[in-house]
Amino acid sequence: MSRSSARLSALALGVVLVLPAFGALLAIPALVVAQDAPLVSNVSAASPQMTLTLGGIEGPKQVVPALKILLGLTLLTLAPAILVSMTSFTRTIVVLSFVKQALGTQNAPPSQVVVALSLLLTFVVMAPVAKRLDEQALAPYTAEQIDEAAAFEAARLVLSDFMLRQTREADLRLFHELAHVDAPARPQDVALHLLVPAFLISELRTGFEMGFLLFLPFVLIDIIVASILTSMGMVMLPPTMLSTPLKLLLFVSIDGWALLTRSIVASFS
User: Is 147 domain-assigned?
Assistant: First the structure.
């Protein structure tokens, strides 16, 4: 027998001897799992359970405080939407944005300053309304003279009176037609979900009208400067380089911010 044949015979014998031992090693984990399986099932069957129960609630009166807290948190969440849709904020910020564009200064004043000024003017305009809300709804409710329903109705009447004075009849009629609802006989009976969008689009229309009137003198300055530069043959010079300082000079010389603030506040009277 050659040396290579002897090596092959020894390798085959080693494989035959090793395979049974390797199979036994593979069978050991299966046996362990099979032995531990009942233990695992017993542990899972005996696992603790937790149950949450709400006790001590004997009637609806026990739930009312929690509902009041939930309603208060909901109103806080909707506060920005109420500020935009039911106050003078929309008209104010629209007019101030138009003035900023008419001046041609895109970054002056900054947007944060415009929003802050709009908020402050909104507080000035809505101060009488807030006083009436406190006198007719909040104060009687905190003094336990009226309940929640009466306080909500009193607050609705105060806000409706303010919004109706600023809402056009055509816009209010439009939303009654869209909702397929007949117009009420009395203005104070207008539903709030129809009055608020009508008030909002009326504010947008009024804001755009005021912005258009404010745009006219500044557009006139742009036209005059562009005509002068064209007649002088200075076509390559941008007209805004000369018109913007002139518009700023005109706006500051007439005390434009004071006049604008007075006009915005007076438009709600």
Answer: yes
